[in-house]
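hiii so my PI (J.) wants the whole complex modelled not just the main chain, which honestly fair. so below is everything: two entries, each one labled with what it is. i double checked the lines twice but i was tired so who knows lol
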Amino acid sequence: MMGFLKGTSSRLLTAAVFLLLISVILYSVWSDFNKPADPIKIGLSNTLTGPASTSGIHSRNAVILAVDQINKSGGIKGRPLELIIKDDKGQADEAVRVDRELINEGVIGIIGHYLSTLSVKAAGIVSESRVPMISTGATTPELGRLDDFFLRLMVPDNLRTQFFADLVYERLKIKTMAIITDLSNPNYTIPFSRHFRKNFTELGGSISSAVRFNSLEKYSASEIANQVTASNSDGVLLVTNAINGALLSQRLRIIDPEIKLIVSPWALPEVDFIKNGGQAIEGAISLVELDLESSNSKFRTFRAQYQTRYNEELSLNGYVAYEAAQIFFEALAKTENPADLKKNILEQGNFEGLIDQITLDSFGDPIRPLYIVEVQNSLIRTIGKMER
Amino acid sequence: MKHLSLKTTLIWSFVFVAAIPLIVTSIWVSRELELEIEKETAEKNNLLTASIVKEVEQFIEMAVLHLEQVADLYDQGMIVSEKIDEYFELLVHHDDIFDSVEIISPQGYIANIFPFDENSIGLDVSNQNYFQEYLKTKAIYWSKISISLQTGEPTLTLSLPISEGILLGHLNLSSLSRITDRFKLGIRDFAQITDNRGNIIAGPDKALIRERYNASYLKPIQEGLTGNSGTYQYQFNETEWTASVAIVASNGWIVTYSQPTEDIVAPVEAMESLVLSGLVAAILTAAFIAAICLRYLLTPLNYLVEESKGITQGNFSARFQRGYFPELEQLANALNRMLETIKERETALQEEVSVRIQAENNLKNNQAHLQAILDHSPFLISIKNTSGDFLLVNQKFDILEGPSPEEFVGRNALDFFPKEVASKLWKNDMATLKRESAEEFEIELKHKDGTWHTYSSIKFPLKDEEGKIWGICTFSSDISEKKKFEEEKTELEGQLNQAQKIESIGTLAAGIAHDFNNILAAILGYAELALNEIDEPQLLENDLKEIIQGSRRAKELVEQILVFSRKNELELRPLRAQLIVKEAMKLLRSSIPSTIEIRQNIDPNCKAILADPSQIHQVVMNLCTNAFHAMAESGGLLTVNLNMTQLEADKTEMIPLKSGSYLKLEISDSGLGISKDILENIFEPYFTTKEKGRGTGLGLAVVYGIVTRLNGRISVVSQPGKGSTFTIVLPTIYEPKIADPEEHSTDLPRGKERILFVDDEPSIVQLNQKVLSKLGYQVTAFTHSPDALLLFQKNPEAFDLLITDMTMPKLTGTELAGLIRKTRPNLPIILCSGYSDNFSPEDAQQQGVHFMKKPLNLKDLANTVRKLADST
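here's the output for the full assembly
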């Protein structure tokens, strides 16, 4: 009896095991068949929170859109892209931390950072790990002429300030300038101010006053304005972010409505600069990488796509971030090995930007034209183009 | 295909019967449950989102209400400038709705701000959207999210037009998050609010709010942005979520309540697990019950199977036992009865099988033997169907030019033999099929070595059980060598015949010389006497007559020798052998010494045979010469018998004979005889027992060749010391009745003349005397020619016509005619002879006689007699 039951049980057990095996085999075959190819991971680390977060948020949104577009078109060589987003909170330590996280998570490249101070720290990390980074905003000369894994799409400030000095001294015929420098982003603002001073004075201009403050700390805008206006300068160079730039502009113009406002691209053409600048920022001038009024179809198509998706206007750094994403995609499509990404990008050298061709030199610094923008009737208008 | 055992089938049947309804029911229940739960969840979550929307609207209404209250007081001038901060503080700190409150002047400057900010007072905000809207609509305005100048956090601004500018409050979004945080039922559930751009403004993840995360790409938000509420599923952070969506009507904000889909269906899955457990339990129970039932059913059945195995091994004495169930008992009884029957049949079957096995073995052996015979046969053996296609050929066919024996099968001779060969084969086959009997053919076939060979084929039709012909079997043997040998043999025999004659002459020479001497002696003696008696004419005449007679005898002897020595080409014609035998015996008598007695019994009525006269002569001469040699020293008796005999068909002999009438020639001697050990060889060429120089060894071989060519047979009986007897039989032929005067005598010319008829053969004398007498003639006949001459000389005028045989002892026909002509030169004479060569009609004409060839034709004889009688 027991033997008989034993035989029956083992028969049932055999049947159950058999069914289980069949299921496992079918499931694994089905899974393999449906398993998507391993994604290519790309990192984005930018300032997404805090007073300076607008550029970072726009950069993030633009890159999300770019990645969605490439994934919808089938990815790169059949592999989808996965974007991993990190908030550097505008802080250098946080930037280093999130960049390490991204590298550990296996990204093949990073888009970011926006702030030069953070980028200087991040450049060491990415070079050490041999993961290329394309910055959307860092223009500090400290990162220029280095054969590292740090690349960027905005013209370095040692070069940019030459254009600025030319513009102010030659075109605007301003001979005396004051400089206001925000020390919250010293790796950007201090070299920018210094290079401008050097270039401007070399042309024959003079700096009547140089005021420094830290927007992360409590400060008096009126006091700064008073200091600058007291120096009787014809113009003032604002090396600040958009909101502080707008605030200071208003205070300066209250005291001296005629003072010429020259604004670093950190503030202008940011939307926040316009929103918060009121009438005081009329006539403010800057030099930027893109003509936001361009009729170039590629540019306009992307702008329309962005507006449709996010229901807002995109700032300059958002466009640059989109260009950075395209350069990564283009290089990835040509290389089998993502580790050779930097080499591939630099070997290719020339890329079509949203409006102009961008040439990256052997150090990963861009050569591209700069557009003169001016605030007119609370709108940013392009009034000229400068290039070597 | 192997079938499942009854045990397996029954167990699985039990399991399926138990499982399938349960499985179907479970699936159906699960599906219904899932749908119900999804529906309930959607309803519940819709209620939740509706509640959140309501609270958000209340929050907004509250914010608006608070600002309106302050605005009213301000507009009514109830708030003095110095006190305004107190009201603002109430708005900011008491209700915790606003982060800050501002009054914007109609020109767009910040006129007042709480909490106070030095940098903000007096700022131009005319570019801000809320101020632009104020200028356009002068209505309450909800701004888009912007970053607060004061806090750096995303901020929403509510602006309310007042009499002098705008009362503006920056809403603290954390108030919204407090609402959403309260609506959290499951651990992983969450409520979330996005603005009308899809940016997250409230929810559990504060980082997303601060980062102004845009969620417009998620399905529920997309639906919300297009104005659709409801329940949707979406994928986020590798988890599937189910979200209910509701829209805040006043500002287009989207409220979602998300729940992991797996949490929603968790009760269903739990239920499914329960059902699955029940299912397994039910199946196991079913299997257990099935096992118990089957034990009672299968144990006796297994016993039946075991017993059956014994039966299959031949143990028919086994008996099945009863089972638990009555059906099984009936089955056992029926099987036991069946066993009895099977046992009986088995015994009978075994006997039949052993007989069949034996028959099969025999058949196999026969087939093997037949195959071996076929393959080793010296003949080409084939079987064809009636269309001429080969069905079987033996290995011997490999010798022929053409395909291998295996390739013959299924093909037609036309496929590989030359056209003329194939055509002849076909004709032969058709002839065989037409006659439906065995037929013999000759055909030339080409060997692989390129040589042509003559084959003798025997073909016979093959018939099935109903007698219908289905094929042709052919046995073909290569007779090329034999034919060649036959040709050579024939040629040799020709030479031998001649040699034999010469030999015979040699043998006969002594006797002939002796005769010649005697004749010459007589001639010389009478010649000498004639010289002496020349004066006595009567005596001289007698001497001269003797001389003439002797000379004639000598002449006759020479003619006979010439006949013998003549080389004849073979000419078969009807002839009477007895005449030739007689002639030969006459010749022999001259050469054989008198110590040997010759007896001959020759039947004159022997029928004719188809043969060449010289060959028959040679046969007699050879055999008699041999006999003479056997008795040469001691002397003895030579007996020659010739008569008719009747033979039955005897196929056992080497040369089979047909039944019928035969001429039998027996030649016996009383000589040395032939020993048994050489008896079989005596007919072989060049075999001889004689001394060198006395015999060629070809005599009997020649005889054998002649006899067999004439379709006859030769045999010998011998006893050493007593003598030998050679017996030859030769087939006779149909012979017209030449000697029947009754039939034609009326039509023939008749006469009454007196005829003298002379022939040494009594039968011929008898016959012709009778025939001529019937025609009216007066015939006087003699068998002894000297007697005839004597009678004639006594009365020469007593006869009108002489008919005489040519070859006669003592006085030949020619001699007789010559002597009679001396007396009556004009007497018509007819000379008759069996040989035409030594005496032609021309010779006869020259001598003035008429020649007739034997045997005498009645009509010719009558006509000739009449003609000659009339000519005188």
